[in-house]
Amino acid sequence: MSKDVVSVKDLQVWFPVRRGFVESLLSKEQRYVKAVDGVTFNIKDREIFCLVGESGCGKTTAGKAILRLVEPTGGEVKYTGPGLTPKMIKEVADHAVAKRIKSKKEATSDVASGAVDVRSLPKDKMKLLRQKMQIIFQDPYESLNPKQSIYDIVAEPLVVNSLGANEKEREQRVTKALDDAGLRPPKDFMWRYPHEVSGGQRQRVGIAGALVLEPSFLVADEPVSMLDVSIRSEILKLMLDLRENKGLTYLFITHDLSVAYVFSDRIGIMYLGKIVELGPTEEVIKGPRHPYTKALISVVPKPDPRMKTDKIILKGERPDPAHIPPGCRFHPRCPFAMDICKQKEPEPMFVSQEHWVSCWLESGEGKR
Amino acid sequence: MTLLEVKDLKTYFKTQEGTLKAVDGIDFNLEKGQAMGLAGESGCGKTTAALSIMKLLPANGYIAGGTINFMNQDMSKVTGDKLRAIRWRDISIIFQGAMNALNPVKRVGDQIVEPIVLHEKVDEEVAMKRVKELFELVGINPNRVREYPHEFSGGMRQRVMIAMALACRPRLVICDEPTTALDVMIQAQILQLLKNLQKELELAMIIISHDLSVLAETCEFLSIMYAGKIVERSTAVNVFAYPQHPYTKGLIAAFPNIKGDRKMPASIAGNPPNLINAPVGCRFAERCYMAQDICRREEPPLAEVLPGHYAACHFVRPMKGAT
């Protein structure tokens, strides 16, 4: 059993809704956009864990909250991956106790398990940890500064973190990162600008920018959705190679179930801020249990007109995370909704050793 | 009767670096009520082909050759008021990302009333009645005609755009990436709507997409474009069942199939050629695993290789007697 690199427990990101003057006079209750509303999962060493869902389900926010690019409002994110020193673990635990974020007992258990609680990390230490936890963004056309050369883009993380003793060492590290990202020979690419290379190569630049810090955990937010189909799998293969050669662990965020199917080891289906089903990829795709998962799988367009399948097309659009329905949050769109679904939120129920689902249909109470 | 006949269409752009041959000799026909998919990577000329039909090219673009025949009129001779009459009344287009092009300060109903009044010389009341019917047709509550675009979600705005395209009962609708910015669930809703409308109204449709799986679900016929040329053309079923051109094969293999085995799809190495200095010979040769000397010397013609199935490759044997 390989150990966890990242474990997330009850992660919560709520954004307060700004109130108008009248509303605040009437002292109405503060409302929140519950983008991520209690998400729990763990990612094992060298695993590709995939979060799938429609836009607005909170998958990107969850990914960013793990790196604290947005501040989580609740829950726990623990990092136990490589690159931690015992001193750092101890310091973070002490900090958490001093700031009364954690009890002494909790802090001691963190130290014992060699974990760092990302949420209680002070700002300067977070910078250190981010060298180990990096992100690749969705849009290689917008996430690269058009006025910087590829060298400057890739070297920037080194500058920000004051790494690399001199220019020569920096150049070596940039060269290596470009080479690792498949931009070969690096010398041909280094002094070009983003508009001079193709879309696939731009995404490789984005990957090189993440690799230059030698991270062990990468959040990849829709890394191939902006790319032409003919080059998508090249980028995915590169990511697999990097896992092989550098022992990387991935959180892969996508709306595309068919990509998730071929690429990931385990998959979590998100709906309106919560994971509704989680399990090994093959098991979830071939034997989905949650009605939402079943519907999502059924509407994936098949690349063959001879495959006619029955589609479960859900009515309506995704509801608003500022007004989450009571009970099971999927019940207004669920074709199988029962009375209990409107009242009580279902707890995760295991249907096999590693595969769980939050649905009343799977529990004794739901079954008639 | 053939509704639309495109023959050897060439659309070029003048740029600072030289003439960019975005579309370089494509042919296709479309009958009444047929849906054709135009597939290819970004930059292959599929949108330019559509804009040429509508004569909506930007200032530096021009039709350098070939003919476009729509309902027995030569489109190159149609200009001015006559052209304006054809657009929207006979041919309409739904642009990529058009749902974001609605006027934010005008009620959506009024935005559709406008073209109806303009094209059909009816009064606003009659036009508004039509808009309500259209809303019903595309699955929006007719009471929402008085709402503003921001009150609609992305999928609903796309339905408004479809209603708008259908406002003057066109015979041909061109959809440029109709579902690209939408979620899978909404995409499924919109594709189903397009399919139903096509059947009900006997619409001819050209659907442009980079996503072969979207076209597989909606179109009877499929043309695969690469670097300004159609490299393969047949019924959708045959293109998927018997792909002939190496590019088509590569493109189909590049799609992960959720119903199939769990394996990484193949990719096509390299990038499409620069269309300012397009290579001599087959334009796909540089990325083709089968390429031989002849491919770099001679351009393969689009030949009939199976009944009604055309491909442009030196290594696909044409049918006997076909030219």
Largest sheet of chain B: 8 strands, mixed
* Spatial arrangement of strands, main beta sheet of chain A: 6-7-8-3-9-10-12-11
Fraction of residues in helix of chain A: 25-40%
Tell me about the largest β-sheet of chain A.
8 strands, mixed
Named CATH architecture of chain B: 3-Layer(aba) Sandwich
Calculate the mean pLDDT score of chain A and round it: 88
Shape of chain B: globular
Strand content of chain B: 15-25%
The number of helical segments of chain B is: 10
Radius of gyration of chain A: 22 Å
Strand order of the largest sheet of chain B: 6-7-8-3-9-10-12-11
Here the CATH topology of chain B equals: Rossmann fold
Looking at the structure, what is the overall shape of chain A? globular
Largest two-chain interface: A-B, 44 and 44 residues
By helix and strand content of chain B, what is the structural category? Answer: alpha/beta
Give the end-to-end Cα distance of chain A, rounded to a whole number of Å. Answer: 38 Å
Order of helices and strands of chain B: EEEHEEHEHHHEHEHEEHHHEE
